[in-house]
Write a structure and sequence with these properties.
Strand content: 15-25%
Order of helices and strands: EHEHEEHHHEHHEHEHEHEHEHHEHEHH
CATH superfamily of the largest domain: Aldolase class I
Helix content: 40-55%
CATH class of the largest domain: Alpha Beta
Number of helices: 16
Number of domains: 2
Radius of gyration: 26 Å
Structural class: alpha/beta
């Protein structure tokens, strides 16, 4: 991640840490240094006083100190990237006291301290001269205003995967239920997209389904596929609205994890170039990891779809929160790199809302949970209708 947060004060809560991370990422983006790494330390008055004495020969605590990369030769983390911008050390004690004095929230004061620290790392210095102080103050005001006015412009929407309708059909080798008809029902119910996975073994969705869906879907058709030559040619022929490249194993019941983009960059890049020439945007289904996000950006993907499977399958709340944090920070990083962000896999009626509330997420791909609920929510009416036919010879 571009931002490494180090908590050295027991009073800092998880919400404040999350707020600092999000603000820092946005500030780096606004300052056009989103590729740079930033370390932020939230510490105590006594610890920052020691740093103030050691590096500035000043007694007492201060609110924030900035250390540009290579400025001191020391760092708060063991491994440094060549793209490291530097360290910002914030006294949480000072932040709380100043927030109280200024009648603002602790988060708002932390925003100011982060902005102030970043500008110092970028060469601004209010202590150099009165003119420099004015320049830095104006830049701080500008950045804080942009942070305050940051709003979500893209509301998330639902894309329904109808693969499981095809699975039921293929179990009997007949024509019903038809995933094409199911897709139409989903759109009428409010879905903003239809997702199908055309597998090499054609275990559920068939070529016929995709061809008809291409003609009938009114919203957006997202074709999930492996980067196999035959499937690539098929996609180039029908031209879906979006292609999502996924890993595919013949023995798996469903997709088990994200693409390893890092190790397959050359192969995936060639597929993206082919789709780009046909004006088909490409999404890469990846695990929420910084290395995979950066690799996706490097090879020209338009979207990433973050794999939410481990979040959905978490054994307890602590594990689920840990997986959620990985998704959240990955979504923010991808967004800051200029990638559009979708998410999916294993989401249901209980765990979806938290993911849907993440600002960068544009679309959630959900299938199994919806089709599973439909079996029960529609079962009562289906049985009643069949009873009427059996008992009365007609539905009416």
């Amino acid at each position: 991640m571009p931002v490494e947060l180090i908590k050295q004060h027991s009073g800092v809560n998880d919400s404040e840490l999350s707020h600092c991370r999000r603000s820092s990422l946005l500030i780096l983006r606004l300052c056009a240094v989103s590729q740079q790494h930033l370390n932020i330390v939230l510490t105590t008055d006594s610890d920052i006083a020691e740093l103030n004495r050691r590096y500035r020969s000043k007694d007492g605590a201060t609110n924030v100190l900035s250390f540009p990369f290579n400025d001191s030769g020391d760092s708060f983390i063991d491994s440094l990237s060549p793209q490291t911008l530097g360290d910002i050390v914030i006294s949480y004690d000072h932040a709380v006291a100043e927030a109280r004095k200024l009648s603002c929230s602790t988060e708002q004061r932390l925003d100011w301290l982060i902005v102030h620290g970043v500008l110092h790392l970028l060469g601004y210095d209010h202590e150099r001269s009165a003119r420099d102080a004015d320049i830095m103050f104006d830049k701080e005001t500008e950045l804080l205003s942009e942070l305050k006015n940051y709003r979500r412009f893209i509301m998330p929407h639902l894309a329904v995967n109808v693969d499981h309708v095809a699975t039921i059909r293929q179990a009997r080798g007949i024509d019903d239920p038809d995933p094409v008809a199911a897709a139409a029902v989903c759109e009428l119910a409010g879905a903003k997209g239809i997702v199908v996975h055309l597998r090499e073994d054609r275990r559920h969705i068939q070529d016929r389904d995709v061809r008809i869906l291409r003609e009938t879907v009114k919203t957006k058709l997202n074709l999930e596929m492996g980067a196999a030559k035959e499937i690539i040619s098929f996609a180039l022929d029908i031209k879906p609205d979006l292609v999502t490249l996924v890993p595919e194993k013949r023995q798996e019941l469903t997709t088990e994890g994200g693409l390893d983009v890092v190790s397959q960059k050359k192969k995936l890049a060639k597929t993206i170039v082919k789709m780009d020439k046909a004006s088909i945007p490409v999404s890469l289904f990846i695990d929420p990891k910084s290395s995979q996000i950066k690799a996706a950006k490097d090879i020209g993907a338009t979207f990433v779809e973050l794999h939410t499977g481990r979040y959905a399958e978490a054994a307890d709340e602590a594990q689920q929160f840990e997986e959620f944090e990985m998704i959240r920070t990955s979504a923010e990083e991808a967004h800051l790199l200029g990638l559009r962000v979708n998410a999916g896999h294993g989401l249901n009626y209980f765990n979806t809302s938290a993911i849907a509330l993440l600002d960068p997420i544009e679309e959630l791909s959900i299938g199994h949970a919806i089709i599973s609920r439909a079996v029960f929510s529609g079962l009562d009416l289906a049985v009643r209708d069949m009873c009427a036919i059996v008992e009365n010879g007609s539905l009416y």
